[in-house]
Amino acid sequence: MKKIKKEDIWPSTLKVTLKMTVIALFSGLALALKIAFAFLPNIEFVTFILMFSIIFFTLEVGFGIINVYCALNMVYFGVADWSIMYFIIFNLYGIIMFLCKQFVYWWWWMMIIICGLMGYLFGSLYAIQTAVLYSPSVGLAYWINGLVFDAIHGTGNAVICAVLYPIIYKLMQTLYPKWPYLFNKKFIKYVHKNKPQLEASPLTHLDSDANNEKIPAE
After folding, report:
1. In 59-80, which positions are buried (b, 16+ CB within 10 angstroms) versus exposed (e)?
2. Non-local CB neighbours of 51 within 8 Å, separated by 6+ positions
């Protein structure tokens, strides 16, 4: 039997450790920002952080961040029907973002639209849960009462994404060569394919029809 050397397993161990660190960092950051901005009604950075995790990182890291955040949220605020719903809603959002991420690479402003829509729909999804647990009339009343907050939520998500996504995109573009195993293959292929355009204009190239060729799936 071949003897396993320490140097053979250390790179793999290091990768796993780094992935766990990134999951802990971003899930903790999402919770910390939620608590810090709790005084602003329905203005949050959580959706943006969890969704850009799906856009840039591998599946295990992206969905790891989503579920660890939901668990931390449940630990901090307590267990209730709404805390369980966090797992359902954000994992659903993660799947939607995973399916749409190719479009986000082509047209960066799609990220703004998607995050905004997720904010507008958040209250409606909770209304469905309320209707199932209590009654359709209670669910309808909950939905109508929360329409203003949903509007604030969706608009806030869109503004936050519009301001921060270009910055985060440039940051991830800089970091992926150092730790490529953290990032998903589609993002790496897209950056490699469009490297000259990225260097010239890191965001405006996404609107060019010349870059709209499909990239192989992961």
Report:
1. eebbbbbbbbbbebbbeeeeee
2. 93, 94, 97, 111, 114, 115, 118
Beta bridge partners of 57: 183
pLDDT tens digit at each of 218 positions of the chain: 555 554 455 577 888 889 999 999 999 999 999 999 999 888 999 999 999 999 999 999 999 999 999 999 999 998 887 888 899 999 999 999 999 998 999 999 999 999 999 999 998 898 888 898 888 898 899 899 989 999 999 999 999 999 999 999 999 999 988 888 899 988 988 888 876 554 444 444 444 333 333 333 34
Q: What are phi and psi of 108, to 5 degrees?
A: -60, -30
